[in-house]
Specification:
mainly alpha, single chain, 6 helices
Length: 105
């Protein structure tokens, strides 16, 4: 149990949030129409939102459907790459900071 806590603490909270979001999109069925949305613009009745469809686009990528992914949002592939890079960068920065603290101690 201590080993698990060690690994959990080694990853920053923001990285865990992104990992959780990406894992959620693995299990979502992108072909099913969703009636609920987190989008504040859509909930206020504004039709066009530049970010709407990104999650669905990433979910289509996970399911191997690049055509529908691009149709849901043209920047879905780019967004997935940026999010993965952000997760790696957060973990790398945390590791480098820990290594610096160990050397200075």
């Amino acid at each position: 149990m201590k080993a698990i806590k060690k690994y959990v603490k080694a990853v920053p909270l923001e990285a865990w949030m992104w990992i959780g979001a990406l894992l959620y999109l693995v299990f979502v069925n992108p072909y099913k129409t969703q009636s609920f949305t987190f989008c504040p613009f859509h909930n206020m009745g504004i039709e066009h939102c530049p970010g709407c469809g990104l999650g669905r686009s990433i979910s289509f990528i996970y399911h191997g459907d690049i055509i529908h992914s691009f149709g849901a949002h043209p920047l879905g592939i780019f967004a997935l790459i940026v999010i993965i890079y952000r997760i790696i960068d957060l973990i790398r920065n945390k590791y480098q900071t820990k290594q610096g603290e160990v050397k200075n101690a």
